[in-house]
Amino acid sequence: MPRGLLIAQAWSELGDAVAPLSNAAGRPLARTVKLILDPLVLRPVLNPCFAAGAIGIEHVDALRDRIAQAGPVLAATAAWFLVLKKERRRAAITDGNPQDLYFQRCYELAGEHGHPQPDAGKRAAVVLAEIHGQDGPTMAQLREFVTGNPGELARLLDTAWASPPARLAVPSVRPADFLATCATRPDRGLFKALVTDSAGTRGAAELDRPGAALACGLTDRDRVVRPELGATASKKTLPKPFDRSIVERLLGPLTTSAHRELLADVGTLARQEIDRSARPWQLADEPGRVVMVLGGQASAPLTGGQADGAAARLRLRWEREAYVQRVLRMPSEVPDRVRADVHQVRAAYLRRLWVRVHGREVRRDTVVADEVWDLLDGVLRSVILDQRDRLRSDLERQALGASL
Hints:
Order of helices and strands: HHHHHHHHHHHHHHHHHHHHH
Largest sheet: none
Strand content: under 5%
Number of domains: 2
Radius of gyration: 24 Å
Oligomer: single chain
Mean pLDDT: 90
Shape: globular
Helix content: 55-70%
Distance between the termini: 14 Å
Structural class: mainly alpha
Low-confidence stretches: none
């Protein structure tokens, strides 16, 4: 039975008590499934029978029972969510998406305290202080700074983008030499030599060619253009990295509460990002640029060609995926978007790698040789998980549509 349809049916049995976690049609919100049902109720990692897009008939009742048994705590979770939203409005908090920030905390409150009691407002205030009270700049402060200083920041952009890139001599160190053993025995001296030799900056020269940055998944334009300052940013409509405004480029670091205390003040962040946007790979530090070159070479064989060292390991992980094998063997039998995901995996990989490296730069967390393989491998795992989720969502939507 289609997983999405089964979850929707079981959810409907919980009634109005879970309405704050539901959409207009009475089904669980996508974030309810992603943040509450999957990780906290169904737990497909521990219960693989609940993980597939179609649930075997022998497991249908078990999935229904799991959601039904969680009904009381889900109802309490919904009630706590309303309390936290009310307290959020009272405190005039505007940063972050409430569902992303509060759903799992509400589930914890429900498990520990049950339904909200008369002291719920005080408990909610404590939770909000924990989530929003950390030291560090916020998106609201960044927007206020950028919109309040447009003249100065525009002049900085003009100056940064007016200088042509430097031309470097022939390289003396090959990134492939480091990739050959970085997964097992990373050579710190060789990585340092790549940085000293400006291997990352050299690799960025290719991005000046028409269509090069587009092929890397970093822009939707044929040629890279100077960014705007911007004033707003939304994760739902975030452009590709090189097409983002200065404000949009800082959205991720400023909304990841676990790292905000590591960031500089908003004025420094904005000025640094303006300078960074005009640098090779639109990154400020050579170690990060070297990682982009290493990632570009390691990910190239994902769609074919000779692979060894780190590249061979990445391709093995990629080709083990069942949906990848199906696209390669029977392309006409899978949805268009799945085929596109598989055939454009290198662009998705480099885009995700840039976001990771950029975030580390903003947090002043320089990449070292011993971390390179974990970073390269972790990015591919993240891309695979995203593609799996999209595939499952597509199949569930198709099944729901067919059942209506």
